[in-house]
Amino acid sequence: MAMPDGDFSRDVRRYLRSLPSFSYHGVEFLARGEYSLNYLVRGPNLVARLVTGTQMGLPLEEQAPYEHHALTLLSPSGVTPKPYHVDPNPKNLPYPLILEEFLPGRPLDYATDIPAAARCVAAVHALGVPQGHRLQIHPDPAPAILEECRRLAEPYLDWSGAPEGSKVALLGGFRRIQGLLERKGLFTGDDLAVVNYDLNTHNFVVEDGGAKLLDWEKARVAPRTQDLAHFLLPTTSLWRDDTATLLTKEQEREFVEAYLEQNPVADVGRFHEQLVTMKTIVSLRAVSWCAWALQETARAGRPIANEETLDRSRAYLEPAFMEDLFGP
């Protein structure tokens, strides 16, 4: 779905005026997400989030209640926005709406905030699997991720505009994953938690030394190492130009140790084996999405309008980068 270009501040104000016993001082545009438009509601200091798309395979009118439900489940962690209101079919608005707590702060800085990020993620995962939840469940996400990667990568692998060296390296990633899938029983469903699935620097906000976590549009129940792998990978840490950092082994160790200090595991060896495997799986998903983005942009005329995203996708599909991820 193409991201809308319009500013719906006036429509959001009109909608808020229709809510009983709701007062506010103003509405202003805050940020554009991949599948959302976000407005700051001054007075109660809330975010009005217009949900413009879904990556969960849901009808659009179900995506907003899904996110709202996730935020409700996660509220006891103290590190996620509190939800206040959801309307899947708001009058005079073009998209479903969520009202949630505005969390002030700056994006995460890898140089100073790694322990705070680890404690934040650990606080969420410590909730385990909430009773009565209605989230999607992926106890062993590897087969589903591999299938998604195939769907994303096939058009690129068939595209005459893709460099041959890039295709070879990408196929090498698929062979590496196929080998990992032969290891049975690594993900057996005993380490599940609600995961964010998108732990990039701009989904964290940091204030007074503490970190909180935003954007739960892709929340699901899955092995917690899925979140940890996503945070540690270069495909995440290098993604945004303003925060791009290649984490050192020391920084990776600092993150994992801070996480385990707050949220310990019974079998540390198995935990680390899961984490190494999950890093490879999530890496393949990242570069497969980049392959889809480049081929689809060339085919359809720039569905990905952000030049920074396209540049980073090209860099991730360089053979040397993929060989660092998957081995030669």
Radius of gyration: 20 Å
Helix content: 40-55%
User: How big a fraction of the residues is strand?
Assistant: 5-15%
Distance between the termini: 36 Å
CATH H-tier superfamily of the largest domain: Aminoglycoside phosphotransferase (APH), C-terminal lobe
Q: On the 0-100 scale, what is the average pLDDT?
A: 92
String of helices and strands: HEEEHEEHHHEEEEHHHHHH
Uncertain spans: none
Large-scale geometry: globular
Q: Identify the strand order in the major beta sheet.
A: 1-2-3-5-4
Q: What's the CATH first level of the largest domain?
A: Alpha Beta
- Counting structural domains, the number is 2
Q: Give the class from helix and strand content and strand pairing.
A: alpha+beta
Task: Indicate the topology.
Elements: H1 9-17, E1 26-33, E2 36-42, E3 46-51, H2 60-74, E4 83-87, E5 97-101, H3 114-125, H4 142-157, H5 164-181, E6 192-195, E7 204-207, E8 210-213, E9 220-223, H6 225-232, H7 234-237, H8 249-262, H9 268-300, H10 307-316, H11 319-326
Antiparallel strand pairs: 1-2, 2-3, 3-5, 4-5, 6-9, 7-8
Helix pairs in contact: 3-8, 4-5, 4-9, 5-9, 5-11, 6-9, 9-10
